[in-house]
Design goal:
Elements (H helix, E strand, L loop, with lengths): L1 H34 L12 H41 L14 H48 L7 H32 L9 E4 H11 L1 H6 L3 E6 L3 E4 L1 H17 L6 E8 L3 E9 L5 H4 L21 H11 L3 E8 L2 E9 L3
Parallel strand pairs: 2-4
Antiparallel strand pairs: 1-3, 4-5, 5-7, 6-7
Helix pairs in contact: 1-2, 2-3, 3-4, 4-9, 5-7, 7-9
């Protein structure tokens, strides 16, 4: 109702302005005719009545022009004002019509809708982030609280007490790891490529170091490693790229079937390197593949395997800072392959 009143108000306002302008022109013509006796066609004393008709015609033209002006310009602007007010109040679902015949108005509405969609997405991600952080922190804290309460019993055997302590230490490690990842992600989000400290180093040796560092995990599963690494140097941030290899190899080991194979390949090309890792285990579902790089997303919803859903988000951000890409090549028939491509010189 309020919007309709605004349209009527502006419509009447524009109509009065146009009609007044037309009226002034007609009066001016009449003054020229009567006082200066100018020979103007159609303006003599015999057809003065036609001037009245012309004024009425002018009124109709003013009304028509006002309607067009309000509909094509003022109405979209009023909608834009109302939309920005809704956005400022936190309503990111508002959208503007984009069917205007005026290109500028159409572009304005389209850009507004794009902005609203992005803000809605950011708000959703923020809410999901808060919910996920709360959930991921609550689980290990509950474990710590529960086992700490059980440890108060004086009747526990040394074996049971040690088992409870191991659970507390493992949950503490989960909290520490998650906090470290969150802090690192926060730092990387505000980091520009130009601020990245980079040195030239042998990336194949770095990957070998990551493999050896994770040896206890893949040896426990009796995995067979097939490793093919080209000797190549790249320019990048060594600590951050080490996080990439450890996360990718660690994930591959974690989701591999026992006694299966793990392929790790590093290839050198003219201007870039490609790192490919393939593990054999339960594939990632088609629906989950769209979200594997999102923060806190875990394909294993049962949380049977340790993790907090931050590793791949961290990996993607680090690779992006190196002007590289990471993608899931395939995940079917018990085989999952990730490929990383990074320029040798940034």
């Amino acid at each position: 109702m309020h919007k309709k009143l605004n349209y009527i108000k502006y419509f009447l306002f524009v109509t009065l302005i146009l009609f007044f302008s037309t009226f002034v022109i007609i009066i001016s013509v009449l003054i020229l005719h009567s006082h200066f006796k100018m020979n103007l066609p159609g303006l003599d004393n015999r057809n003065t009545i036609s001037l009245v008709g012309f004024m009425l015609l002018s009124l109709l033209v003013s009304v028509a022009l006002s309607f067009i002006l309000v509909q094509q310009v003022l109405k979209p602007l009023l909608l834009f004002i109302s939309g920005t007010k809704s956005i400022s109040e936190g309503n990111f679902e508002v959208r503007l019509p984009t069917h205007s015949s005026v290109d500028e108005i159409k572009n304005l509405s389209t850009n507004f809708n794009n902005m609203a969609e992005q803000l809605e997405r950011i708000a959703t991600l923020r809410n999901d982030f808060i919910a996920n952080v709360s959930h991921e922190f609550k689980t290990p804290l509950s474990v710590i609280e529960g086992y700490a309460a059980l440890l108060q019993s004086k009747e526990l055997s040394p074996t049971t007490r040690d088992r409870y302590l191991d659970q507390i230490i493992e949950s503490t490690h989960q909290l520490s790891s998650m906090t470290s990842h969150l802090l690192e992600l926060s730092k990387l989000e505000n980091l520009e490529e130009s601020e990245l400290e980079q040195t030239k180093f042998e990336v194949d040796e770095q990957i070998r170091t990551a493999i050896l560092w994770l040896a206890p995990k893949w040896q426990t599963k009796n995995l067979v490693l097939n490793i093919e690494l080209d000797a190549v140097k790249i320019t990048g941030n060594q600590p951050l790229l080490m996080d990439v290899w450890i996360n990718l190899i660690g994930n591959a080991v974690k989701f591999s079937n026992p006694e299966s194979s793990l392929e790790i390949i590093l290839q050198e090309f003219n201007t870039s390197i490609e790192f490919t890792i393939t593990n054999h285990g339960e594939p990632i579902s088609k629906s989950d593949q769209l979200y594997i790089f999102d923060q806190f997303f875990q394909s294993d919803t049962s949380h049977a395997k340790n993790g907090n859903g931050l590793g791949l988000s961290l990996v993607r951000k680090i690779i992006q800072l190196h002007n590289g890409t990471i993608r899931l090549l395939n995940s079917d028939q018990n085989e999952t392959t990730f490929k990383v491509k990074i320029p040798k010189h940034n």
